[in-house]
Hints:
Shape: globular
Mean pLDDT: 86
Strand content: 5-15%
Largest sheet: 7 strands, mixed
Structural class: alpha+beta
Amino acid sequence: MPRRTQNHLCPHLNQPWGKCAALKDDLTTQATFKHLAQFSTISEHEPMDEASIDDPGMDYMPDIFPPDADNTKHREYFPVTGQVHGNAPTFMDLFDTDTHANKRKSNLYWPFDTKGDWEIGSWLLRSGLSMRLIDEFFHLEKIKQISLSYKSAKELRNRAELLPPGPQWKCKPWKTSHPTKRPLSLFYRDSIECLRSLLRNPLFADSMHYTPFREFRSAAKLVRVYEEWMSGNNAWRIQSQLPEGATLVGTILSSDKTNISVMTGDRVAHPLLISSANIAAETRMKSSQNAFMLLALLPVPKFLEKRPKVRGILGDRLIHACLDFVLEPLKIAAAIGIMMTDALGQSRFCFTPLASYMVDTQEALMLAGVAGKTSHLTTASYRQFGDNFRHPPRTARLTLSQRDIIRTTVDPADVAAYGREAMKFRLNGVDTLFWRDWPFADP
């Protein structure tokens, strides 16, 4: 993508009220709704107990253990809670340090004059209308009689850009080892800044968990309850390996290719979303809460390579390489920690392991580095799916050890030969897996 085009696109992406913002919101809503729709009634059902989870053939019947009369759940928290290291600016503190904060004290709708002024401007910027059509709207005789404080599309957009910004969009031209039909560019935001924005969000202040816990149906501890990631064994295990007083901030990712044919002519986008496992599931899993942020737009390439299998490997390698680049700050924070601020302005020493990656089965195989018709959870291939016993789990250690064996016999640069050798282990030919150096990550 030409640099001039890149320099024009990034301001459009950073524009809080514009056509690109509307498209970003639509992509985020589509991707979030697709992955969360199946869980949309989570609060309407009783959680499953351990026996139900361990027995895949169990016919789910009503709980044989009646709840206590007061229906009070019992929690055991991790012995050492996350410590607070002083105070830091809250979201509102940062909002009020903006250059134009004083003007908002006397006018809540600044940089617009009145509420009506803001409502019309907000609608126009999010309508998807082009700059030319917005200018034509302003030239209508009836609109001229309203006496708006802005007279053109350019002036309206400049007003919106005076608002305090969120995590900013960046563009990185992406070079590939094999030629593509069009030059590739990766649009992304700082992953740490996005996670900080979620933790600092005052709307989530009453829905945050900062300490792992074990939850039971009652004080008798007969039935274990799993409703949050922080209530699981994995969060407890990771917390036990962190420095004393550290705060565990689980990272949730989600991605899926999405058709955007209406505005771009049968184009495909590959949005990457980010959220935090610390946000209560009841809040996080409602799309109206906006608990997922658009982190990156992964490139969707068209390689000129004629061999389909090689094209597939190149596409998978590209996704892993882009994820490796975008998520690098989170990997560093998961290894050595980083200071973050919660919604109450309390500074915490945080670690950011990968808690979950929400994808469909096809993308789960690609991310795990596994070939098609193979389980990404066990070592079973499609011919073994009907076996009456459980195959060994496919762990990160196993996959990386198999990759190291392949490296000793084939050069990863020889994509075709590497792919053939990888298939012997039921791997997809990706040599540099994005999760390889992410502490505690295990697909």
